[in-house]
Amino acid sequence: MIINLTETTTDEIVSTLLSEGVSSGSRVLTLVIDTDRDGLEEALVAAHGASLDHPCRVVAVVSPQSGGRDDADEARRHNGRGPGGAVGHLDAEIRLGHDAGAGETLVLYPEGEAARHADTLVVPFLLPDVPVVTWWPDTPPVRPATSPLGALATTRITNTPSQPDPSAALAALAPEYTRGDIDLAWTRITLWRGMVASTLDSVLCAGSVRGVVVAGEPRNSSVSLMIRWLRLRLGVEVERVDAPEIPGIATITVRTDSGELVITRKDYERVVITRPGAQRPQVVTMARREPVATMSEELRRLSPDLVYEEVLATFAEDHAAITTTHEGSR
C-alpha cells in the first residue's frame, strides 16, 4: 500500500503512521537513503530486500536537484520558495506492506527551503534506541560524516561502484574517512578475500609468495581495494592488469616458488582454482554479489571495519604523496 501526501508536514506524516497502526517495536535500525529520482526505486529494492534479514524503517530523501520535478525550477525562481510562494514544500509517500519490505518506508520529496534542511525533516522519523545508518546509493558527499544526513548516523555507506570512475571516487573519499564509513566496493570482495585467504594458507606457511597479479575491470574500486589488501597482507608487489571484458575481479595469480596459483572467475556463479602440480583445477561456488547481499552484510555488521580503515588509508597516503609532488613542482 502506498499513501501519497502532497504539501504535507512531518507532523502529518507521523499522524498518518499512527493512524495506520505502524509500530516500531520490531525494528532494529533506521536506514536513511540520500538519493535522486532516477536511483530511488533501485535503492529501495536493495533496502527492502536487506530488511527481510534486518527489519528497519527506511527513510528515503529524494534530492530535487536531479529529480526532474517541474516545480524544482519554480522553487529556485522564487528564491527558495515552493509553489504559491510558501517557504519550502514537502511531498511524501508512505509505503507499507508488500511495498515496503519488513518495515515501513517513507519517501520524502522536499523542495526549496525544505530541501536545504533534509536532516531536520528526517529527525522526527528516526526510531528511538536503535542505530541510524545513512546510505548514498549514488553520488556521495565530499565528507559523509559531516554531511547533514551523515551526521545523524553511526554507520555511513557509500557506493563508489555506481560512479563513472569508481577508483577515483574512492580515492577522493579516502582522505575524508571517519570511523564508521564503509563503501560497498569493499563489501563486494568479502567472499574474494575469504577465498584468497583460505587458498593461500598453506602457501603462506611456506613463505614462498613472490608476487601477485590481479586482473580486473579498469577503474573498478573493488579491484583497487583487493590490490591494496593483498599488498598489506602479503608484503609483496601486486601488479594490476586490465581485463575490460570481465566485471569486477577476473583473475588473481599468485607467483610462488613451486609455480603459479591461479584463482579465476569462471562465470557469475563459480571460480576455478588451479594449484601448482595439481592434476585438475578445483571449481568452487562463489556467486557475484548483488546489492541486496552487500546491503544485508553491512546492516548486519553496524560496527567499524578496521581492516577497511587500514586498506583505505593507503588511498589517502597516495593522495597525500601526489599532492606533495604537485606542490613541489610549482
Write the layout of secondary structure elements.
Elements: E1 2-5, H1 10-19, E2 29-35, H2 37-51, E3 56-62, H3 70-77, E4 89-95, E5 105-111, H4 118-122, E6 132-136, E7 155-158, H5 166-173, E8 181-183, H6 184-187, H7 190-206, E9 209-216, H8 221-234, E10 238-242, E11 249-256, E12 259-265, E13 270-274, E14 282-285, H9 291-301, H10 306-328
Parallel strand pairs: 2-3, 2-6, 3-5, 6-7, 7-8, 9-10
Antiparallel strand pairs: 1-4, 4-5, 9-11, 11-12, 12-13, 13-14
Structure summarized in a few sentences:
The protein is α/β, with parallel strands linked by helices and 330 residues long.
Provide an overview of this structure.
The structure is a single chain. This protein is an alpha/beta fold and 330 residues long. The protein has helices spanning 10-19, 37-51, 70-77, 118-122, 166-173, 184-187, 190-206, 221-234, 291-301, 306-328; strands at 2-5, 29-35, 56-62, 89-95, 105-111, 132-136, 155-158, 181-183, 209-216, 238-242, 249-256, 259-265, 270-274, 282-285. The strands form two sheets. An eight-stranded mixed sheet has the order 1-4-5-3-2-6-7-8. The chain has a six-stranded mixed sheet with strand order 10-9-11-12-13-14. Helix 2 (37-51) packs across helix 9 and helix 5 crosses helix 10 (306-328). The protein is elongated, with a radius of gyration of 23 Å. Residues 66-86 and 319-330 have low confidence and may be disordered.
